[in-house]
Amino acid sequence: MVVPTWIRYRGFVVALIGFAITRFFVAEALVVDRSVLFLAVGLLPLVAGLSLTVYGVALAVGVFSRDYVATVARWCLLGTGGMAVVVAITLVGSGGAGAIPPSTAPALVANVLISGAVAGVIVGDRSAKHRRERERNRRQANRALFVIRILRHEVVNRLGVKWFERALLSRHPESASRSRTTPRLPVSTT
Predict the structure, then answer these.
(1) Annotated domain spans of the chain
(2) What DSSP string describes 14-35?
(3) Which tens digit of pLDDT belongs to each residue from 16-50?
(4) Contacts of residue 112, Cβ cutoff 8 Å, sequence gap at least 6
């Protein structure tokens, strides 16, 4: 089986994170009713998780560069992992004293993990765009330095020719009157 080279597998990491959190946390904690609480606690994380999954697939098969996809995936993993650590510390810190009711704990974990993943993707997107902008600015600066070097070289060559002519004319003043009436040939710099 030949695997296409255009697939960026790190995009599937983002999709897998979105799908796993949505499937194992949000869907398990979802209690469907027709209240405003369902819209805030249940539907919003569900939509965010599925959107993250779709975005991950788009990263994998879209027209994004490998560096961009790698940066977004790295930040998504960091955001999800960071929020998982926060949830673990919170659950251990509560010590089973009933600070978090068991009925809302799965929804809380799902919301926090989805928030971490989405925040990581946003930060990764901005980070990758800033890196691309820095690279573009660096290339433009290098081009400008190249043009400056060429111009400096041309100016110094022209000045050298003028200084040489002036030095010759100062040593031989009788040729000065002749050089003003005789047309000069252009000087080649190659």
Answers:
(1) 9-144, 149-181
(2) HHHHHHHHIIIIIHHH----SS
(3) 999 888 887 666 656 656 666 666 667 778 888 89
(4) 83, 86, 87
